Amino acid sequence: MRNGNIINGCSYCSMSRRKFLAGCVACVGTSGLLAKPAPSIAARSGKIRIQVIYSLHAPKQPGPDWPNVGFDFRPVMKRIDAALARGCPEFEFVSTMAKGPEEAKKILQKNALSGVDGYIVYQMNCWNRVVQGIATSGKPVLYVDFQYGGSGGFLVYNAAFLRSGAGNVGFVASSNMNDVIAAVKCFESVRGGSASDFAALTTKVRMEGTPRMGSMQCRPDNIRTVSTDECIRQMKKSKILSVRDQNSGPGGEMLGITVENVSFAEVNAAWESADKDMSKTVAQKWKDDATKVVGVSDETLETSAAMYLGMKEVLKKHGANAIAINCLGGFYGGHIHAYPCLGFHQLNNEGMVGACECDIRSTATMVMIEAMTRGRPGFISDPVIDTAKRQIIYAHCVAPNKMFGADGPVNPFEILTHSEDRQGASVRSILPLGFMTTTLEIRQPQKEIIIHQGKAVENDPDDRACRTKLAVEPAGDIEKLFSMWDQWGWHRVTCYGDTKEPVYSLADAIGWKIVEEA
């Protein structure tokens, strides 16, 4: 075990992370800004001067997003600054904050006159586009993930840098501050060298600091999958209801699965008309089954139960077995009046599919998994990578607690508020450990299925970001696992069991390609 300085007293730690921004390496125009170049390290005596830029909305988070509403970044930034000064006394650090491209541009303009030797950009919230502009400086840039805060943007933006060959950008994704310090010391490599020397050295240091893969021997799992023909037949029989806005009607297909658009109004009406006594019964059952309920009133549980009953009614009406709801847009827009998290939890336990954020690709992936595995659910998540532990952590505010199917064993779960806004009711599922997991996602236009596997090793109780956090040690190359997020987006779907062979068989049968992510 390595006992580094841990920021925020736990594992290292948008406006909305939901707003996925494509094209992650668009340059901030800085042409002409460096008319009076600052002295280089080689030409100056004294300490190496590094600008630390915290990329975030505000010092205290004003709205719902990772890590959570009201999160106070000030003590975290203070601890990071102190750790950098203590760990690298040979450097001079100057810290600032930036929200987006315009502020990044101003930083570059100022430094064109005052001069710095390199940058550290901390991605504190997910989607603030600061690092893209700073990377155009040509100076060495160390890009750091504030885990459970900026992880979505970090993975997507960093993958874009890797793909574009931005040779001046190195990165750290670690819960151990010692790993950050080791990477910062690589700035010394630019004495007489180049920014690409710096980036290459950070890769070497990161790989040396990542533990070797542990034993992949897993607990026995007698998973039974259906034939490829049967899997395809089950998918063709399935239907996904897409609840994105107030529109209704045909929604095309995804992976051969029919998609139908259903309006917020229809779901809300079903919620309003749900039987009140039955809602109380369901809410009480959840309360009795949970190991604890924190910050969630009986009234909120009952409205969540009514949403579950309403969704079941809508599924029955449309002859569907899967539903995906634009939950945040619907709730914040006043179109629905209860989070569907607990309802999704229950539907997935019962062999149906409930999926977050109206992500139809992930919903279709969940339907595929359920069909292939005779009813095992998929867990849709926002992943985080931690090289200090050699883990990928799958995080979301809802997960089943019957990961082996409706008739399988149950695992403990807690009922908490939805993490980002501390409202409503959601689930922290304490998922089984020691088992092999398979993680998938589809891309229909490209006819591709991405896959990686790993051993479930930990449930992270960190209060930041989404409630359920299953940590898995990936089987394969964790460095490769950083490389595809800009092409595939942030979501992945995880199931218990080794389904690699049947996934390959399905891809062969339908003419799709498998992409090995790790």
Secondary-structure blueprint:
Elements: E1 48-55, H1 74-87, E2 91-98, H2 101-114, E3 118-123, H3 131-135, E4 141-145, H4 151-164, E5 169-172, H5 177-184, H6 195-209, H7 228-237, E6 239-243, E7 249-254, E8 257-261, H8 264-272, H9 276-289, E9 292-293, H10 298-318, E10 322-325, H11 327-332, H12 341-349, E11 353-355, H13 360-372, E12 379-386, E13 391-396, E14 413-418, E15 423-429, E16 436-443, E17 448-459, E18 468-474, H14 485-488, E19 492-496, H15 500-510, E20 513-516
Parallel strand pairs: 1-2, 1-3, 3-4, 4-5, 6-8, 6-10, 9-14, 10-11, 17-20
Antiparallel strand pairs: 7-8, 12-13, 12-19, 13-18, 14-15, 16-17, 16-19, 17-18
Question: Key features?
Answer:
single chain, 518 residues, alpha/beta, Rossmann fold, 15 helices, 20 strands, disordered N terminus
